[in-house]
Amino acid sequence: ISDQKPLGCWSVKHGQILTCPVVCNFETHEYIAVHDDKVLRIWKNEDINLDKAFKATLSADVYRIHSLPLGGPVVLFRAGAVRTLDVLLEAPQQEIENVLSGETIRWSGAFMEGQQPVLIFTTEKDGEFFVYVQKPKLSSLHRYKLEPQESAKPLCFTAHITNQTVTLLCLYSNDSVYQVLIPLQQDAEEEEEEEEEEEEILSKSLLLNLSVSGAVLKGTSLVVLDKDHVAVLGSLAAPGKEPRECLTIWNTKFQTLQTSKELPLGTSGQLWCYEEKFFLIHGKVLTVILYKCETSSLAAAVGKLKDSQTPDVSLFLNWNTLEDEELVVSFQSQESVALKAESGMNLRSRRSTVGGGQPATLPVGQLLINFKNASNYVLENELKKLMARAPTPDLQATIGCVVTALTDRCKGNPKYYPQSFLQHIVETHELSYSLCPDLMAVALEKKDMPLLQMCLERFPDIPEEVTYTCLKAFLSMNEAHLQTLDVNVDSVICYIDVEVDDKEVKTEIVENGFGAEMEQDMCDSKMPEESHFRSGAESCPVGLHKAALLNAVLHSAYTETFLLPHLKNLPAQQAILFLRYLYYLYVKCSEKVNTTLPGIRSPTINQIMDWMCLLLDAQFTVMVMLPEAKELLSNLHKFVRAQVRFYSELNKIEGSLQELQRLNHLRESQTYSIEVLEII
């Protein structure tokens, strides 16, 4: 997610529906999915077509597949039966027993107890709730009835296993969290209970009231962080105020709210937790929040309640994608839950100080606040000192904050723009777009083409819309103005043909002792088509500096699905100019023996071909209608046709060339000889 690029995408056929979440088999590194309730699909990352993946049709509907790192995948059927994936694949059409009697599964979770997987799921029937605990490998199943609650019902469940005991947490509609303890039965006890077959009623105890200072949290999702902390996503309703969606963390040991964060763009109501990371949908963005739970203490809980308005230490936590106006969020110094946010793919970090003493070095957030109103000179000097600190694990995030502080100053003061400072930071530190999302927007506003070139070449996660905006800006720039800018031309200087005073100057690299003139003298038998279309692409259609900027765009990572809609909006004349340049690069690559252009960060043949295909897909209708594009499309067609013909001829003699190579290995090379081999 750090690059914000899809690494793989698989689709079912039209009319088919994925009916449960896809999981990963940790042992085989395969994906497992179920569509249309009964059809099981298993595939690997390198598989492209889901329709050709392994398929097994089961005899009963699947509710959920759970994958455990050491226990393998476990399949829970809607009828309440459980099978491990291995057992199920041995006979996909095996009969699946009906465990439930008119009940509907509401929640399920899988856990490891020792070497055995344990599956827990809750069901509902006529307003009554039941809990099932099953060990698939031991074929043991226990059913319990949940103690009813007057005028309230469970909204969601979560659980964890500690010391042979299942702790089931239930979020009820009366804004409370209840706890249910279920001891795991041992083998001897299980045999005895099979004879009794009496349904046990589980009693529950109140764990937490979701209210603070008169405000009540209407929870929608609940996850366990550790034995003393839970996270609840919901809507905080205060008297006389509009409800606000919040992510909250509670200390269950001392009944206190540890920290909360408002989510103004709204959520889907779902919260996931995996490997000390929260996952939630905020607006249209997947938000990932890293957290760390420290040992719970009474001092921390009391301190939080005693003086929540005037914390003595400001801890850095950047939530830029959540609240644009907020740079630093202050939390109590003794709080037991520390957060780091990677919000909307924006990696951020913060340090927490435990205890009442003032830290020796102020956190980054506090420093930025202190210098918010400082002069430009003082701000830059202090930021340079901050960057010169000894390397720390969160140095990259610190540099991102420095850039954010500078861009904020630029937006607030249009006359201020530290061009050289920003270029130095980007050139000397490994940054990403998500660390400083406003940097490229400011550079576009200031028309800082060298900085945009650096960002395109270095940032791995630039959104496609920004890439398109840069491309459009580069194509529209005046060539004379570009020559006055300090654009890096290392990617083009070794191969581009430039015109000076109407006289063409070629900077072509001679390969294998053959230059263009020698090749012309020795090879008079060129195909007429080839000589025609090569003449149309002899000189570069753009200047040296614009070509270097366009090469930076070619290097930028993108996803075709997201970039294509933007390219359709590219003005026709700019699209033709860009295609002419791509065609020029394509011809240049084809002239080389290894189809590789010389120079630093020169575009590859694959990048050129991908962008050419993408541009034609986006603009083909427009180009077909424009008279000025007719010759370009015709030349491109002829060149590609000649390339296909050439490689087709090579394929015909591939076998002979391989045999020749084999004979050379067998032949002794001590004596000098001349041999003539006839290729038939």
TrEMBL record:
Keyword check for Transcription: yes
Domain (Nucleolar protein 11 N-terminal): residue spans on this chain: 1-292
GO MF annotations, alphabetized: RNA binding
InterPro entries: NOL11 (IPR042859), Nol11_C (IPR048897), NOL11_N (IPR012584)
Main location per the UniProt record: nucleus
Gene Ontology biological process terms from the UniProt entry: maturation of SSU-rRNA
Gene Ontology CC terms, in alphabetical order: nucleolus
Pfam families linked to this entry: Nol11_C, NOL11_N
Keyword Repeat assigned: no
Keyword entries, A-Z: Activator, Nucleus, rRNA processing, Transcription, Transcription regulation
UniProt-annotated location(s): Nucleus, Nucleolus
Protein origin, superkingdom: Eukaryota
Every Nucleolar protein 11 C-terminal domain range: 369-678
Protein name, UniProt field: NOL11 protein
Organism the protein comes from: Sinosuthora webbiana
